[in-house]
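Notes from the 1:1 (GR / supervisor)

We went over the backlog. Supervisor wanted to see one worked example end to end before approving the batch request, so GR pasted a single chain during the call. The sequence is below; no edits were made to it. Supervisor asked that the structure be written out right there so they could see what the output format looks like.
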Amino acid sequence: MTWADLLDGLEAELTGDPVGALPWDPPAGLGPLPAHLEDRARAVLRAQADRSRQLRAELDTVRGHLDALDRIPQQHPDAVYLDVDG
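Structure output shown during the call:
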C-alpha cells in the first residue's frame, strides 16, 4: 500500500455509509508522508472533521426525536403506531 492508496481509501470512506465502518488502524511501513501529498492529506483531514461534525448533529437530532417519543404517554402499550393526523 502507498500513501496515495491510503488517501484514496480515506476519501472513498467519506462518501460512504458510516454504519458499516470498521475501526481504523494505520498501516505499517508507509514511512513519512511525501511532501507532494501533504495538501491532499490536509484536505482529507478537514473533510473528516466536517463529516464528524455532521454525524454528531444528525445524532443529536435523532436523540431529540427519541426523547420526544419517550415523552408520549403509553395508554395502550400494545400500540404499534402513532396517529399524528388525529
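Supervisor's comment: The radius of gyration is 21 Å.
Batch request approved.
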